Amino acid sequence: MKFNWGHGIVLVIVCGVIGFLSLVFITTRERIDMVTDDYYPKELKYDNQIEKQKNYNALSQKVQVNIDGVFEISFPDNIANAGSIKGIVHVYRPSDKSLDIEEAIKLDEHYKMRIPLSKLKSGKYELIIEWQANGQPYLTKQDVFID
Hints:
Layout: H1 5-29, H2 39-44, H3 46-57, E1 64-67, E2 70-74, E3 86-92, E4 101-104, E5 112-116, E6 123-133, E7 136-146
C-alpha cells in the first residue's frame, strides 16, 4: 500500500483530534483555587483597602518580617500599646489554598507575633496583615519566601 495525500490528511486530522482530547483531559483535571471564596463581595470593599494601605504607608515605622527558625512579625511600637493592636494575619499560598494560614494578632510585650515554621512548607507566600490601632485601620501586603 502506497502512502498518498489522502492518508496524510487523515493522519493529521487524527493526530489533531487526539491532541485536542488530551488537552481537554489534562485541563479538566487541573485544580483551580480562587484567591478567596467570597471574591466579589471583597472587591466591592476595595476602596476601604486602598484607604487602609494609605494609612499604613503614612506610618514612620513599618511592619518587619524575620524568618530565622520561626516566622516572626514585628509591629511598630510607636502607635499603640501591644494589647490594643487587633487584626488578622493571613499567610496566603498562591499555589495551594490548603496551605493558607489565618491567625488573629496576638502580640507579646515586644510587639512581636510568632508563627512556627512547622506550619509552613517551603515556597512563596503572600503576607497580608489587616489590623487596627487607636481606631485607625491599616493593611499591608508583602511577599515572603520560606526555605
